[in-house]
Design goal:
26 helices; globular; alpha/beta
Length: 616
């Protein structure tokens, strides 16, 4: 099968497809060596291109722009920017329309670069031919008054893009106001970057760069349907930002459905629920954990649909097979609603916002110490709490024991990280297999945690080491050693000078990390400098030398007795080690602080930690 494909987006490219064979279901696409065609004012097909709403937003950043621009500047012959995949959306001989399945990042970037070139050239030259070429590349011109941008982006990107065109190409009669905060988004930032890059590159000016753009090479692959495009979509993204599992899952969803507008709305809701922190990692983890928590339900979906009756699903979702799982599941119309319903609950877990104060407090701390592998189990329990007859106190006890399990695991590396996903998924399988309800669910989970958790001896050995190297874990241990941590709220946050939330209570080294001469004299009498340095390095980060303080800056590097007796200047209240908290009981009557005292306090707090973080 042979294709001669003409298209424009920023550049007009002519590609003859002939010798390289790519399998797309039953269709063969053959392609031969090709050359990109120069930009010219009116191509015979007058093509236009649309980025589908389900595609990701424009996401190239400065590193991508720099690489692309520098590659152009070093161009000699045949600069190849990879393959692009299009679905032809009409069968006209002229006014061809295509949807861009892969290649949108490059096409949008080239179009923005052309607009930047237009802006610079308009200021630098009186030659109108180049300006007219760019306008013809950026617009379909049907008459003096009827110009249509050749490239149509997704809604928000398109508002920014058309506002940019309207702002800098005065000949275009259609006026678009600049959307709020457009200057902070990628479309405008890319334009500003390229304008500066062109102006600062005096050796190869704007006109030379335009001539380079006319020679860009690509492979254009045109298919007739979304399923065909989907096959290629996962393998031919050679120059853009690599496709993620979430991109592939999304593409599978839309290629399996005819009701695209409704799906876009629901998909956006789902993704927005998971737009927290490192959003891609969270989104990918949700799809894995959602399946592992409810695979019984997922497998039941298959028999309800003719399209999936013969399909099978694996026993566990992993990073390697998650796309294949949802590629099957999204053939069932109800799957997205099922995911969306569970994503609401999952988002509540991520935000520690279940509406139950004590449980939320424990979930917040579990998230803080990175107990995310247990979200599979928690999502299941949270969604099924009523049907499992699981009381709030029992759920609270499970959350508390999960905290204790993970503080032991993270300090000892036992059990191994690679086993955790399967471990929590297996707990769900056993709850269902044994038909456990009420307190039996709690007892089974606690017993399972206890059976694989680090022993007291292993936990104690880890606690006796350099606890401060894992500051999150050190903070968690200090904040939860005594019941008072709950009453004093060691987890309270307040805004700093940069208006960022941070913990009010922070880790304080009793013997400071940097020793003054006074500290050396009082804590290491008679020892030489090298011995002091060695002993200090060995013990300064031990549990026995750490506490929590709401006045870390005020205590700073002062002598021990001054830190111990420190008072607030305004209120006269003790803010040093005589502040009355149990964590400081063994400090308040000491006159000096040395290595022997650090050892004794470490031993005492380790014994307390084994009890405070017992799994029971």
């Amino acid at each position: 099968m042979f294709y001669s494909v003409y298209f424009i987006v920023g550049v007009i490219v002519r590609v003859t497809i002939a010798s390289l064979t790519i399998e797309v279901n039953t269709m063969n696409i053959e392609t031969s060596p090709f050359n990109a065609y120069s930009i010219f004012t009116n191509d015979e097909n007058n093509s236009s291109f649309q980025i589908p709403e389900f595609q990701r937003e424009y996401s190239w950043g400065q590193k991508n722009w720099e690489t692309f621009f520098n590659d152009l500047m070093e161009f000699k012959e045949g600069y190849f920017i990879g393959s692009m995949i299009f679905v032809k959306t009409n069968n006209k001989k002229t006014d061809l329309s295509f949807q861009v399945i892969d290649g949108q990042q490059r096409l949008v970037t080239i179009s923005i670069l052309l607009l930047a070139l237009y802006t610079v050239l308009k200021k630098e030259t009186k030659q109108t031919n180049s300006l007219e070429e760019i306008i013809s590349a950026l617009f379909r011109i049907e008459s003096k008054r009827k110009w249509t941008p050749r490239l149509l982006l997704q809604t928000l990107n398109n508002e920014d893009y058309q506002a940019l065109l309207s702002e800098h190409i005065s000949e275009w009669s259609s006026k678009h106001s600049v959307p709020s905060n457009a200057g902070n988004r990628k479309i405008y930032k890319a334009y500003n970057y390229f304008c500066k890059a062109i102006q600062s590159n005096k050796d190869r000016g704007a006109y030379k760069l335009l001539s380079i753009l006319k020679k860009i090479q690509i492979v254009a692959i045109v298919v007739k349907s979304y399923p065909d495009a989907s096959v290629l979509f996962s393998s031919l993204n050679t120059r853009g930002i690599p496709l993620t599992t979430i991109d592939l899952i999304k593409n599978s969803l839309f290629s399996n459905s005819k009701n695209t507008p409704a799906l876009i709305k629901d998909w956006d809701k789902l993704i927005n629920l998971l737009d927290i922190g490192d959003s891609y990692q969270i989104q990918e983890r949700f799809f894995r954990q959602n399946y592992n928590a409810f695979k019984t339900e997922a497998k039941a979906f298959l028999v309800k649909s003719e399209a999936t009756k013969q399909s099978t699903l694996p026993s566990e979702a992993t990073r390697a097979n998650i796309f294949k799982i949802y590629d099957v599941l999204f053939k069932v119309d109800t799957t997205l609603n099922w995911c969306l319903k569970n994503a609401v609950k999952y988002s509540n877990l991520l935000k520690a916002n279940t509406g139950k104060k004590n449980i939320d407090r424990l979930i917040e701390q579990l998230n803080f110490i990175e107990g995310s592998p247990s979200h599979t189990l928690l999502l299941y329990l949270y969604c099924k709490q009523d049907s499992l007859a699981l009381s709030d106190p029992d759920l609270e006890n499970i959350c508390k024991n999960l905290n204790h399990f993970f503080i032991r695991r993270h300090l000892t590396d036992k059990p191994a990280t690679r086993t955790l996903d399967n471990f929590f998924a297996e707990q769900i399988s056993q709850i269902e297999k044994q038909n456990l309800r009420g307190s039996k669910v709690k007892r089974y989970i606690v017993k399972s945690l206890e059976s694989v958790a680090a022993s007291d001896e292993e936990f104690e050995k880890a606690l006796e080491g350099n606890l401060y190297k894992t500051r999150k874990l050190a903070r968690y241990v200090l904040a939860n050693l005594y019941p008072e941590g709950k009453e004093l709220d060691f987890w309270q946050k307040e805004k700093n000078k940069k208006n960022q939330l941070e913990f009010k209570w922070t880790i304080e080294h009793v013997m400071p990390q940097t020793l003054s001469d006074v500290w050396k004299k009082e804590s290491f009498p008679g020892l030489n400098e090298e011995t002091i340095k060695q002993q200090h390095a060995l013990y300064v980060h031990k549990l026995g030398n750490l506490t929590l303080s709401g006045y870390n800056a005020e205590l700073n590097n002062e002598r021990f007795i001054e830190k111990r007796d420190k008072k607030d200047c305004d209120t006269g209240i003790f803010i040093g080690y005589k502040n009355g908290i149990q964590l400081n009981q063994s400090l308040k009557n000491q006159k000096t602080w040395n290595i022997d005292q650090i050892k004794k306090r470490t031993t005492k707090l380790c014994e307390l930690a084994k009890k405070s973080f017992a799994i029971k």
